[in-house]
Design goal:
GO terms for molecular function: rRNA binding; structural constituent of ribosome. The chain is α/β, with parallel strands linked by helices. The chain contains seven helices and six strands.
């Protein structure tokens, strides 16, 4: 098993912890990571752009002039696409861009990016993060002592609300739960700081 150092809340070292090699010690699969990132980014698209076709535009029920005898081109409606204010041909319509990949694929992608973080020394395990009340300054000092002051993903166990609120106002710091670790968030971070309790939750999900 791969062992990494465990740090206390004050930044001092508190021993080591063994990581599951089936999660943190695999060979990264770049193709699976790429497919999963595309899926997550597509699912984040709002898809709210839209235009109206000629059947959705208001008005235009009456034929503007008779079919023959005027010398002008025949027209059936003033809401045809060639008219100003008419419908749009083949325009975009509001829709969802989301799609899903098999669970085995998405889990393999998460394992791949986590294994890469461990290999690069960018995964930091903290014994616990306990705050009596939200303390942003104390949380920022903790991240600085762990050399994880910028673009950091903090993974907390469920119910640790004070720690989550302590990091909420910090720039370029994102907080998620151990059960919510995903490929895109791990890739977008330079450091991953995770508590031992959240590590157990993560291993339980990915095992």
């Amino acid at each position: 098993m791969t062992s990494v150092s465990v740090y206390k809340q004050d930044g001092s070292q508190a021993g080591t912890v063994d990581l599951n090699d089936n999660i943190f010690g695999i060979t990264p699969n770049e193709n699976v990571v790429f497919d999963t990132v595309l899926m997550q980014q597509a699912s984040q698209r709002q898809g709210t752009n839209g235009t109206k076709s000629r059947g959705q535009v208001r008005g235009g029920g009456k034929k503007p002039w008779r079919q023959k005898g005027t010398g002008r081109a025949r027209q059936g409606s003033i809401r045809s696409p060639q008219w100003v204010g008419g419908g749009v041909v083949f325009g975009p319509s509001a829709r969802s861009y989301a799609y899903h990949l098999p669970k085995k694929v998405t889990r393999l992608a998460v394992k791949s990016v986590l294994s890469e973080k461990v290999a690069n020394g960018d995964l930091v395990v903290v014994d616990s993060l306990s705050f009596d009340q939200p303390q942003t300054k104390a949380f920022a000092s903790l991240l600085a002592s762990l050399d994880a002051a910028t673009k950091t993903l903090v993974v907390l166990e469920d119910g640790n609300d004070n720690a989550a609120r302590s990091a909420r106002n910090l720039d370029r710091v994102q907080v998620i739960s151990g059960k919510g670790v995903n490929t895109l968030d791990v890739l977008n971070s330079q450091k991953v700081v995770i508590t031992k309790a959240a590590l157990s939750q993560l291993e339980e999900v990915l095992a």
